[in-house]
Amino acid sequence: MSLAQHLISGDCRQVLPTMPSNLVDAIVTRPPGIPDPEIWRQALRILKPGCYLLAISASNTFHRLACSLEDIGLEIRDTLCWLYSPEVADHEPCFTPAWQPIILACKPGPNVLPLGIDACRIPTGERLWQGGCKPGYYPDDAYELGNRKSEQHPAGRWPANVVHDGSEGVEEAFAAFGEKKGDPPDRKPRRMSAVKFGWKGQATRDAITLGFTDQGTVSRYFYSARMPELLRWLVRLICRRGGLVLDPFSGNGSIMIACSLEGRSCIGIEPSQVSNASAQDNLAHLRHLKDNP
């Protein structure tokens, strides 16, 4: 299939059964509430063996979603956490939402694909150890390993399963842990400054422009992105360039746009005519930007 974004107007409960099995390379979606388990059974059928699903959920319902995915045969591999600066709640007394779980699941198969870790690394100028190195290489300042060669991975730090939005509130919370209090005796100490660090996403006519600084609090261990860039990061994590992504709850097309920007095709399904019109406008605007740089 050539690189394209295909939006289907309809209910995924009726559309998914018409799609062939083992069609898509990944599923990235933001389901509303707890969808019908039959939707996930059809999604599992359409997903290629050894490929992944990412479902962005809510903190009070993700456990039920995870159980539904596991019950139909998907393997839960991890739950990512997206931290964002909370807004003041204006309804009945409750906690103000400040994080969102993202369930990572895999369809069993003889050859499970590796995650796109290198495409999701966190750039840094620091000397790294373990996950920040090329395979088989270790920095001199990690552990006493004789004369073994040290070569840092050019893409940077290994990503964690926590992502934050880079907002002032989140950065200030991380800044409270700005100094490392102790180091293992067999490792040279590294001082952490309290300067802000990380990727910063800004909306522009080019959709997203990223800025980067090379120092920081412990927030530097986590990828930093607002929602548009977060979706792009998730797409890179589980789908190779040129692959096909399915979003059965496409809404205004935000995941389809992320796929287009990252060089992936996407099939989106949405029953709402209002959301479909918004998605068509967003995709048309993106094509215009690409045609008129």
Helices and strands in order:
Blueprint: E1 5-9, H1 12-15, E2 24-29, H2 37-46, E3 47-56, H3 62-71, E4 75-83, E5 99-106, E6 162-164, H4 168-175, E7 198-204, E8 207-213, E9 223-224, H5 227-238, E10 244-247, H6 254-261, E11 265-270, H7 273-291
Parallel strand pairs: 1-11, 2-3, 2-10, 4-6, 6-9, 10-11
Antiparallel strand pairs: 3-5, 4-5, 7-8
Helix pairs in contact: 5-6
Structure, described:
The chain is an alpha/beta fold. The protein has two domains: 5-122 and 159-291, Vaccinia Virus protein VP39 (Rossmann fold, 3-Layer(aba) Sandwich); 123-158, no CATH class. Helices cover 24% and strands 23% of the residues. The strands form two sheets. A nine-stranded mixed beta sheet has the order 1-11-10-2-3-5-4-6-9, sandwiched between helices. A two-stranded antiparallel ribbon has the order 7-8. Helix 5 (227-238) packs across helix 6. Residues 135-150 and 179-225 have low confidence and may be disordered.
Looking at the overall shape, the CATH architecture of the largest domain is 3-Layer(aba) Sandwich
First-last Cα distance:
26 Å
Rounded to an integer, what's the Rg over CA atoms? 21 Å
**CATH homologous superfamily caption of the largest domain:** Vaccinia Virus protein VP39
Beta content comes to: 15-25%
Number of strands: 11
In total, how many domains does the architecture comprise?
2
Task: Work out the helix count.
Answer: 7
**What is the percent of helical residues?**
10-25%
